[in-house]
Write a structure and sequence with these properties.
The complex is a heterotrimer of chains A (385), B (322) and C (330).
Chain A lengths: L9 H7 L5 H6 L2 H20 L1 H6 L6 H30 L10 H11 L1 H18 L1 H4 L10 H4 L19 H37 L1 H16 L2 H11 L4 H29 L1 H8 L4 H37 L11 H8 L7 H29 L3 H6 L1
Chain B lengths: L2 E12 L2 E13 L4 E5 L6 H8 L7 E10 L2 E2 L5 H10 L1 E4 L3 H4 L6 H13 L3 H14 L5 H5 L8 H14 L4 E5 L7 H18 L2 E6 L2 H7 L2 E6 L2 E7 H6 L4 H8 L50 E4 L2 E3 L2 H6 L1
Parallel strand pairs in B: 3-8, 3-9, 6-7, 7-8
Antiparallel strand pairs in B: 1-2, 1-4, 4-5, 9-10, 10-12, 11-12
Chain C lengths: L1 H27 L5 H6 L9 H10 L6 H14 L12 H36 L4 H15 L2 H15 L18 H39 L2 H8 L4 H22 L2 H6 L2 H6 L5 H10 L3 H29 L12
Helix pairs in contact in C: 1-4, 1-14, 5-6, 5-8, 6-8, 7-8, 8-10, 9-10, 10-14, 13-14
Classes of the chains: A mainly alpha (385), B alpha/beta (322), C mainly alpha (330).
Chain lengths: 385, 322, 330
């Protein structure tokens, strides 16, 4: 960073930025400053409130507890780092009015202006963070069964935010742990599907000819099965635990990506600029990296967001039917199933997990829509000017 | 006066800012004459055409000005009246016929629809009229062609078909927006011949918009030069080409290769590039690229003033000379 | 056109073969002895080993795998999917009984889907940039994202349990047999209302989004500006010029919903205890009734293939740009 024009005023600001939000407030960015302050206050509060669990994690052998505590530390560090960097960036560009014109900058700006998309990202990040922090956050042990008769089917209250189920277990804690299951399955399954699909499609497009033909025929067969039916069949064949379920979900969805990637690479091969790139000696892998990735990135991101939603929904559906994650492991899907027979008496058992699930799916859909709007070029303008 | 445009201003209201595609344009077109509008891509000439017909898409619109056609201000007409002007009073043909023809309807039907709309003929009569129009446009086997779909026609024939649709309403003014740009050279000549022919036959005025100076010079009686939304020079075509006054026009003409001039005569380009309409230079928008520019040019845009007989020019430096 | 259809049918043969093969091998992948699967529904009984061998022979499970494979292919070609482990009846019969129930549900749902989806999508596109459009867009996105089982449960809770307007499940009321013909019909409709609504509304949301996008695409084409420039009124431009183009892919999409007709309602059927194909499959999966699972999955996949064929043929029929001998997908 250039410091030649550094005014002496800068240093106090940067120091102030160590307290997240303060620097921003001093510079006049109240919105962001307030948000940063609230965030860091909330994080610190969490650490203090659950100090024993936070510290205690490091003496247990459980990976998830370590992860939760480390994540909390990272959150705090991250806020401070971001605050510092952002204040520095604001000060640096104070004199320039030029707004970023690069496609990325334009896309980011357009995305940020889409309020719904921004909120949905917040919600998604919030949910994942809550899921990771679950060991620290949960007021009760999700698996513990207390005095059943006294505690079963209690409506939502200050003690039990989401009420209790038929065994007296606290549903808020179970929902948090259910979030871990549902959200991680969704994300992992999507990653598996996209990775396999991309590799497969790239190989098919790269080799072309008979190899391509054979590979694509296999894809055709796979795609012919309606997704949910395929999942049902696979779940019926293999006993479903988390790992198997992730694999099944991932393995049913990869052909779509494969076809898409293959199409992109093939069309790239045929476009004029590939010929010119090759004419100036650009090797094949560079062509792919420099040209394929950026142009394919937009639809891949959009479909990735949609895919996570689809995976989460599929897992929920399977678990609801009793074919996915089975109790007592909580998953939002099987929690809804547990409540379905008591809609009149204990509506909260089905309502909250389903509500969280719906919120998550809606957020991913809004995110995908926001991404699509932000990344799509406004071709309309070019035509008329 | 058939068409009288006064101080037309149209803009696009984008997230990134306001884009003034047409920034104060005034001109006249008399019945039967051909007027050319020349400029590079992106100077707003198409928007002039769309402004006249009030067809600018969202997020753009005509902001101010008057468009007097046969004495009535088109911009202030009620919608049903304006619809009658479109197609029957003023026709328009576009650059790419392939895009301007509806791909799922037969050519004959597309022409006949216009005939039924503006000339009130019955379905069968409209069809035979349509065939006649196709024939008049020089399309061989018009009955067969009328039953074809656009994708079955060649580029030149699609253009003729589009001209036929525009002519079907018997307009008094035809706006031709880049009529030959997308065509092969030989077809270009055919189309410009066709335009001249129908102009003679139907006593029609033509506003020809193009970046192809040679085409315009060939067809237009008078020519206007446009740059970043404003007119910089207007004159009788012969005079404009022979004695261009504005440095931009001179640059445009100097950049035309001349057959037989030999390889020693250099092709002069214009230094720099057309500025982004969202980020225009101050004052005379041409000043960063102009060899005559000085500080006076950076303040206010120069007005389009009379510089010689039937010759206007918008340049501080040139007026002084005359 | 006929040539095209025949050619496509022939091309589908390897695909169909692949589907049937895939189903066969996936089922065989199941860990454990197939006989255990057969016996599982009757776990209580201790079965004599000799009987097990007899059963093994009867189901041809003692043959080497390639023989089993060929037998399977031959049987499928005849429509024989074997016998259900749990119900001890030919799978074909069981499936045939379930199909009409599913069809009632899905056909009505598709109608609802098309009616609301297409019209809302058109309205949304025509009124682009207005509040109505924004509300519809976001609304359809939300409805589309809601998990069907939760929506169903919430609606049941609201309309059946609390308000009592609709029955919670089943296909018929208790007094069905005593009703008149009209009464029976109305009773069935009454029971169909909620499931059809849930199924149709989610589909409608998706259709509306797609229709909106498609129509917007078309509205940005130059021939729409040209149509306006000819003096046609806006309604004519939209209905005659834009819609005719925009609806083309929509039509083919409905061609592709053939698999949906039989398989798209699994969860809904389970929630409403509707005895259709979906519920059958789910129960079969839960009960490890392999013949049924394989049968329904194969049928669903085959329907997809024919659905695609139907979609392509419809497309060729509807879009004049597509010639019948050498179809090009746009």
């Amino acid at each position: 960073m250039r410091r030649e024009n550094a005014e002496p005023r800068r240093s106090p600001h940067r120091l102030r930025a160590l307290i997240p939000g303060l620097g921003h407030l001093a510079l006049g960015h109240t919105g962001r400053g307030v948000r940063l302050m609230l965030f860091s206050v909330a994080t610190i509060f969490l650490v203090v409130w659950r100090w024993d669990r936070f510290i205690g994690a490091f003496s247990t052998p459980f990976l998830d507890r370590w992860l939760a505590s480390i994540f909390l530390i990272l959150m705090l560090a991250g806020v401070i780092w971001y605050s510092l960097r952002d204040v520095g960036r604001i000060q640096q560009s104070a004199g320039e009015e030029r707004r970023g014109k690069s496609p990325w900058a334009v896309a980011m700006r357009r995305f940020r202006e889409n309020r719904l998309a921004v909120y949905s990202i917040y919600i998604i990040i919030l949910f994942y963070a809550l899921a990771i922090l679950a060991p620290i956050l949960t007021p009760y042990d999700p698996a513990a069964i207390p005095d059943v008769m006294a505690n079963r089917y209690l409506p939502p209250s200050g003690d039990h935010l989401f009420g209790t189920d038929e065994f007296g277990r606290d549903l808020f804690s179970r929902a948090l742990y259910g979030a871990r299951v549902s959200l991680s399955i969704g994300l992992l399954a999507m990653i598996i599907a996209k990775t396999i699909g991309t590799l497969y499609g790239s190989v098919a497009a790269y080799f072309g000819g008979t190899v391509d033909n054979v590979l694509m025929r296999i894809v055709d067969v796979w795609i012919a099965f309606p997704t949910f039916y395929l999942m049902l069949m696979l779940v019926g064949v293999f006993e479903a635990n988390i790992v198997v379920l992730v694999l099944i979900l991932g393995l049913t969805a990869w052909p779509g990506t494969a076809r898409f990637i293959r199409g992109e690479i093939l069309s790239l091969k045929n476009q004029a600029f590939t010929e010119s790139a090759r004419a100036i000696g650009l090797p094949a892998h560079l062509i792919i990296v420099r040209h394929l990735i950026p142009s394919a990135l937009s639809p891949v991101l959009v479909t990735a967001a949609l895919a996570v939603a689809g995976m989460i929904g599929a897992e929920a559906g399977l678990s609801y039917l009793g074919l996915g994650i089975r109790p007592p492991t909580p998953s939002w899907g099987n929690m809804v199933a547990a409540g379905k027979d008591n809609l009149l008496n204990a509506w909260w058992v089905a309502f909250f997990p389903g509500g969280l699930l719906t919120l998550t799916l809606i957020s991913f859909s809004l995110l995908a829509d926001g991404l699509r709007d932000a990344l799509d070029p406004k071709a309309l303008m070019q035509k008329y000017v | 006066m058939l068409l009288s445009v006064r101080d037309l201003r149209s803009a696009f209201f984008l997230d990134e800012g306001e884009l003034w595609a047409v920034d104060g344009i005034s001109f006249d077109v008399e019945a039967g004459e051909t007027v050319g509008l020349v400029g590079e891509s992106g100077c707003g000439k198409t928007i002039v055409a769309l402004s006249i017909l009030d067809l600018i898409p969202h997020p753009g619109r005509v902001v101010s000005g008057r468009v007097l056609f046969e004495g009535r201000d088109l911009l202030r007409l009620p919608p049903e009246e304006m619809r009658r002007v479109r197609g029957a009073g003023i026709g328009i043909i576009f650059q790419e016929a392939a895009a301007a023809l509806n791909p799922v309807y037969r050519i004959g039907n597309q022409i006949a629809d216009v005939i039924r709309l503006h000339r009130g003929l019955a379905r069968r009569d409209a069809w035979s009229e349509a065939v006649k129009v196709l024939a008049a446009m020089g399309i061989p086997e018009p009955e067969k062609r009328a039953r074809s779909y656009p994708f079955e026609l060649s580029g030149g024939m699609k253009q003729r078909a589009m001209i036929a649709i525009a002519m079907a309403g018997r307009p008094k003014l035809l706006i031709a927006d880049e009529p030959t740009t997308a065509l092969d050279l030989t077809v270009q000549a055919e189309i410009s011949d066709l335009l001249r022919q129908i102009q003679d036959e139907y006593r029609m005025a033509i506003l020809i918009i193009s970046h192809d100076l040679e085409l315009v010079a060939d067809m237009a009686d008078r020519t206007m030069v446009m740059y970043t939304g404003r007119l910089v020079e207007t004159a009788d075509t012969k005079e404009l080409v022979g004695e261009p006054m504005h440095p931009y026009t001179q640059g445009l003409i100097g950049a035309i290769p001349v057959l037989g001039a030999g390889s020693e005569t250099p092709l002069e380009g214009i230094p720099g590039a057309v500025p982004d309409l969202l980020d225009l230079p101050s004052g005379c928008t041409f000043h960063p690229r102009c060899r005559l520019a000085d500080d006076e040019c950076k303040l206010e845009p120069p007005p389009l003033d009379d510089a010689a007989h039937r010759h206007q020019c918008a340049c501080y430096k040139v007026r002084v000379q005359t | 056109m006929l040539k095209y259809i025949i050619k496509r049918l022939l091309l589908s043969v390897p695909l169909v073969l692949g589907i049937v093969t895939a189903t066969f091998f996936i089922a065989r992948l199941a860990p454990g002895d197939p006989m255990d699967m057969y016996l599982e529904p009757q776990r209580q009984r201790q079965v004599d080993p000799e009987v097990i061998e007899l059963m093994r022979k009867r189901y041809g499970l003692d043959q080497p795998i390639h023989v089993q494979y060929v037998t399977w292919i031959k049987n499928v070609a005849r429509g024989d999917f074997g016998e259900s482990f749990r119900h001890r009846r030919p799978v074909r019969d069981i499936v045939a009984e379930a199909v009409p129930y599913t069809l009632q549900l899905t056909i009505l749902a598709l109608l609802l889907d098309a009616l609301f989806g297409i019209s809302l999508g058109i309205i949304s596109a025509v009124k682009q940039y207005t509040k109505l459009d924004k509300t519809l867009t976001v609304g359809s996105l939300i409805v589309y994202a809601i998990p069907s089982f939760w929506l169903a449960l919430m609606l049941i809770m609201l309309f059946s349990v609390n308000l009592g307007w609709f029955p919670t499940s089943q296909t018929r009321s208790m007094n069905y047999e005593d009703l008149t013909m009209i009464g029976k019909f109305l009773d069935r409709m009454w029971h169909l209302a909620l499931p059809v609504f849930v199924l149709g509304i989610a589909g409608a949301a998706g259709t509306a989004r797609y229709m909106r996008n498609r129509l917007l695409e078309v509205l940005n084409e130059e021939y729409i500006v040209a149509a306006r420039a000819r003096g046609f009124r806006e309604r004519t431009v939209i209905v005659k010029h834009a819609l005719r183009n925009a609806l083309i892919p929509i039509v083919t999409i409905y061609g592709m919903s053939l698999p949906f007709l039989l398989g798209g309602a699994t969860i809904i059927e389970t929630i409403f205890a509707w005895p259709g194909m979906g519920r059958l499959t789910v129960a079969a999966v839960g009960g490890r009734d392999y013949p049924i699972i394989m049968a329904t999955t194969t049928i669903a996949a085959l329907l997809t293939v024919f659905g695609n064929l139907l979609a392509d043929v419809t497309y060729a029929a509807v879009d004049p740009r597509v010639s019948y001998d050498a179809p090009r997908k746009r």
